[in-house]
UniProtKB/TrEMBL annotation, chain A:
Keywords: ATP-binding, Nucleotide-binding, Peroxisome biogenesis, Transferase, Ubl conjugation pathway
Molecular function in Gene Ontology: ATP binding; ubiquitin conjugating enzyme activity
Protein name: E2 ubiquitin-conjugating enzyme
UniProt xrefs under Pfam families: UQ_con
Enzyme's top EC category: transferase
EC number: 2.3.2.23
Active site (catalytic residues): C89 (glycyl thioester intermediate)
Family the UniProt entry places it in: Belongs to the ubiquitin-conjugating enzyme family.
InterPro entries linked: Ub_conjugating_enzyme (IPR050113), UBC (IPR000608), UBQ-conjugating_AS (IPR023313), UBQ-conjugating_enzyme/RWD (IPR016135)
Keyword Iron: no
Gene3D superfamilies, per the entry: Ubiquitin Conjugating Enzyme (3.10.110.10)
UniProtKB/TrEMBL annotation, chain B:
Domain of life: Eukaryota
Protein's name according to its UniProt entry: RING-type E3 ubiquitin transferase
Transmembrane segments: none
Organism: Ceratodon purpureus
Molecular function in Gene Ontology: ubiquitin protein ligase activity; zinc ion binding
Organism taxonomic ancestry: Eukaryota, Viridiplantae, Streptophyta, Embryophyta, Bryophyta
UniProt keyword list: Metal-binding, Repeat, Transferase, Zinc, Zinc-finger
Phosphoprotein is among the record's keywords: no
Length: 162, 357
C-alpha cells in the first residue's frame, strides 16, 4: 500500500511541475497507477537530438524498495538498450537502485544514459562494438538514422508507438 | 507523610503539574518509578498491541499487589494539611467520607484552624497543642494553593495557602517558595518539556525521502518516528529506512555501498536510530543517539541470552551483555596482524582460518 501512496505523491508532483521540465513528460495510466508512460527528448549534441522516445514504466508492488521496470517502446540504436525488446541496462535500475529515486529522476537518468553510452556493458552489441572499435562516425550515423526513422515525427507532436 | 504514599511516581508530578501537591496519594519522589502497567490493556483494548511501551498485565494479576488502594486508609492523616490539628474528631469525620478528601483540602485549612482554637480552648492538652505548632511554622511543609497554580485563586491576596512563584517556562504559579529542591526539579523538568515541544513542532514539516510524506503525518503514532542515519543528515521514517535496509534485494546489490548506504547521498551508515523528534544541530543529534544507546544498554541482548548464546554483533552490540549473576561480559579482542601490515579481529580461532584452499 505504501507504493500506491508514494505513486500518488509522485503523480501530484508531476502535475505541479508540468511545463517546468520540458524534456520529460510523465503520464500515468488512467486505470492503473502502476503503469506509467514517459516521453523523453533526446539530449542536444547527441545523435538522439530531435527525437522523442517513449518509455514504458512498470512499477512493482514493492516500489520504492524495488526499482521500476523501464523499457524503450520507441526503437533506438544505443549500446545499452536492447534493440528488439527495448530493455535498458542501467545500474540504478538494477543493482544501484535507491528508494530516494523517483520516476522523474529515473527518466532523467535515462536521458543521461543517452548522452553517455557505456560501451563496455552492451545490450546492443552492434552499437557497443562500433563504439569500442572507435568508429564514432559509424555509431553516430546509425543511431541518427534510427532516431530519424522511429523517433522524429513530422508533426513534432507525440509519436504513436504503433 | 512519605510512608502513607504510594511508591508509584505521580504522572502529573512528572510533567510538573500535580495540583494536589503534597496531598497527592502518588509519590512525588523522583527516585520512585512511574507505573509501567498499561491501563488500556487492562480495560481490554490497547491499540499499540505488542508495540505498547507499557506492560501488558492482566487486571487480576495487578490487584494482588494493589498499590493504589492500600495507601488510601493510611493516607488519611497525611491528607490533612499540617496546619490543622490531629484531632480524633476530625479524623473520624473524614474517615467516614474518604472520597471527599482531596476536594476538602482546599477549604479545610479554615475549619481546621477553628478546630485547633476550639480544641486548644477546651482541653488544652499539652501534646496536642505542641504538635501542630512547629509544623505550621515551617512554611516548606505547607502546600501551595492549587487555584493559584492553575491560574486564578478566588481568595487572591487573602488566601490562606502559599501562592507559588511564577515559573518562567510554563507560566504557572507552581514554584514552592520554600522547597528549593522541588523548585529546581520543576524548572529542569519544565525546560526539558519545553525543549521537547519545540523540537516536536519543528519536526512537523520534515519529509521522508523514501515515502515522500511528512514523517509526522503518518496514520499511526508508532510510524511517526524518524530514522536517524549515523553517517549523514538525511531524514527518513524509521519504518521506511528499516524496510529498505532489511528488505529483500536484487542479486548483485552491494550491501555496503547500496543497501547500508543513505538512499540520498550513498554515505554508508552502520545503524539507524529511531527518534520522535528531528535534530537541527550536531549536538542534538548526539544527544538523541546517546540517549538511544543508553536505553538499549539497559536491555539484555537476546542473542547473548545471559551468556547462553552468542551475539553476532559482538562488542558492537548496543544491548547489555550480562551473565545471570549480573556481571558484564568482558571481551578481549584479539588482533591478528598479517604479513602485509593489515590487521583483523579474530573471534573464534580455527585452524581452517590459516589454511589456504
Amino acid at each position: 500500500m505504501t507504493s500506491r501512496a508514494r505513486l500518488f505523491k509522485e503523480y501530484k508532483e508531476v502535475h505541479r511541475e508540468k511545463g517546468g521540465d520540458n524534456d520529460i513528460q510523465l503520464t500515468c495510466d488512467d486505470t492503473n497507477i502502476y503503469r506509467w508512460t514517459a516521453y523523453i527528448k533526446g539530449p542536444v549534441d547527441t545523435p538522439y537530438q530531435e527525437g522523442v522516445f517513449q518509455l514504458a514504466i512498470n512499477v512493482p508492488e514493492q516500489y520504492p524498495l524495488v526499482p521500476p521496470q523501464v523499457r524503450f517502446v520507441t526503437k533506438i540504436f544505443h549500446p545499452n538498450v536492447h534493440f528488439k525488446t527495448g530493455e535498458i541496462c542501467l545500474d540504478i535500475l538494477k543493482t544501484a537502485w535507491s528508494p530516494a529515486w523517483t520516476l522523474q529522476s529515473v527518466c532523467r537518468a535515462v536521458i543521461a544514459l543517452l548522452a553517455h553510452p557505456e560501451a563496455d556493458s552492451p545490450l546492443n552489441c552492434d552499437a557497443g562494438n562500433l563504439l569500442r572499435s572507435g568508429d564514432n562516425r559509424g555509431y553516430r550515423s546509425m543511431s541518427q538514422m534510427y532516431t530519424r526513422l522511429c523517433a522524429v515525427h513530422p508533426n513534432a507532436g507525440r509519436p504513436n508507438s504503433s | 507523610m512519605e510512608g502513607g504514599r504510594s511508591r508509584v511516581l505521580c504522572k502529573f508530578f512528572m510533567h510538573g503539574a500535580c495540583l494536589k501537591g503534597s496531598d497527592c496519594q502518588f509519590s512525588h519522589n523522583w527516585s520512585d518509578n512511574a507505573s509501567q502497567v498499561c491501563t488500556f490493556y487492562q480495560r481490554g483494548l490497547c491499540t499499540y498491541g505488542a508495540h505498547c511501551r507499557y506492560e501488558h498485565v492482566r487486571a487480576s494479576r495487578i490487584t494482588k499487589p494493589a498499590p493504589p488502594p492500600v495507601p488510601v486508609p493510611r493516607h488519611l492523616p497525611a491528607a490533612i494539611p499540617p496546619g490543622s490539628n490531629v484531632d480524633s474528631n476530625s479524623t473520624a469525620e473524614t474517615a467516614v467520607k474518604p472520597s471527599s478528601i482531596p476536594l476538602k483540602d482546599a477549604w479545610q485549612q479554615n475549619s481546621g484552624q477553628n478546630l485547633v482554637n476550639s480544641v486548644a480552648g477546651l482541653s488544652l492538652g499539652e501534646a496536642e497543642a505542641e504538635e501542630p505548632e512547629p509544623i505550621s511554622n515551617d512554611p516548606s511543609d505547607r502546600p501551595i494553593c492549587a487555584f493559584a497554580q492553575a491560574g486564578n485563586c478566588p481568595h487572591g491576596e487573602s488566601c490562606r495557602h502559599i501562592h507559588g512563584d511564577l515559573c518562567p517556562t510554563c507560566g504557572k504559579h507552581c514554584l514552592h517558595p520554600h522547597r528549593p529542591l522541588e523548585r529546581e526539579n520543576h524548572k529542569l523538568q519544565c525546560e526539558r518539556n519545553k525543549k521537547n515541544l519545540e523540537a516536536l513542532l519543528k519536526s512537523q514539516d520534515i519529509e521522508c525521502s523514501v515515502c515522500l510524506e511528512r514523517v509526522h503525518s503518518k496514520p499511526t503514532v508508532s510510524e511517526r518516528k524518524f530514522g536517524l542515519m549515523s553517517g549523514c543528515d538525511h531524514p527518513f521514517c524509521v519504518g521506511c529506512i528499516r524496510g529498505w535496509r532489511s528488505g529483500s534485494h536484487a542479486p548483485g546489490m552491494d550491501i555496503n555501498t547500496v543497501v547500508r548506504a543513505c538512499p540520498v547521498c550513498r554515505v554508508p551508515t552502520h545503524y539507524v536510530v529511531p527518534s520522535v523528534v528531528w535534530y537541527f544541530t550536531p549536538e542534538e543529534k548526539e544527544d538523541i543517539v546517546n540517549g538511544y544507546k543508553n536505553k538499549l544498554s539497559e536491555i539484555d541482548c537476546r542473542h547473548f541470552d545471559l551468556g547462553n548464546g552468542v551475539c553476532p554483533f559482538g562488542t558492537s552490540c548496543f544491548y547489555k551483555h550480562a551473565f545471570k549473576d549480573g556481571t558484564l561480559e568482558e571481551v578481549k579482542l584479539r588482533h591478528l596482524g598479517a604479513a602485509d601490515g593489515s590487521t583483523f579481529i579474530v573471534k573464534n580461532v580455527r585452524l581452517s582460518d590459516f589454511l589456504k584452499f
